[in-house]
Amino acid sequence: MTKNTDQYIDDEDYITKSEIKREAEVLKKLGKELYELPKTKRDKLPLSNELLAAFEEADRIKDLNALRRHFQFVGKILRETDVDAIKLAMDALGTSSVAHQRNDARLEELIEKLIGSESNLSEQLIQEHSQLNRQQLNQLIRNTSRSEKTTAENNDTEPTKALPASPARKKLKHYLKEHLYGVLKL
User: Fold this and answer.
1) How does pLDDT run across 119-158, given as a tens digit for each residue?
2) Residue 11 and residue 120: Cα distance in Å, rounded?
3) Domain of residue 83, residue span
4) What is the rounded distance in angstroms from the CA atom of residue 50 to the CA atom of residue 32?
5) Do 128 and 68 fall within a single domain?
6) Average pLDDT value for residue range 92-119
7) Rounded Cα–Cα distance for residues 156 and 97 (Å)
8) Are residues 71 and 108 in the same domain?
9) pTM higher than 0.70 for the full model?
10) In contact, 134 and 141? CB cutoff 8 Å
């Protein structure tokens, strides 16, 4: 007696065991990410009572293996909930680590373009976003550019080593984050 495997090949809705395991792992990671959020932010998310109870239980678990198994249970609970709504709420709160990394990368890319000598992006940015102060933005760009040129000249011996962000760059980044938050999906 052999199984008819051809019926599964034609079925578009067929999900392999590997796909199921990958989805379970993603949900388990999402559960850990939700658990690691501060309780005040977690309370703003559309989480079920069962999930909140599971997070309270996780607070009491001390053994690492037991905690690993518990997050498998959290992943099982998440399979039965609306994960898309939770992810949307996390993105709206700006709590997702992936969202933070994505926003940070966009902001760093914008800063690199702004301090580029051939770029006239600051004028374009000011015209598009009236909330920006021309004088303050241009001063922050100049200070950042000057600071990074000085740092690069002083550290010519090790060009492959990544340097920490200068205070001027941090100020520029903070200013852009503060005034463009939400506009550029930062």
Assistant:
1) 678 888 888 888 888 899 889 988 988 888 887 777 665 5
2) 54
3) 14-93
4) 15
5) no
6) 74
7) 34
8) no
9) no
10) no
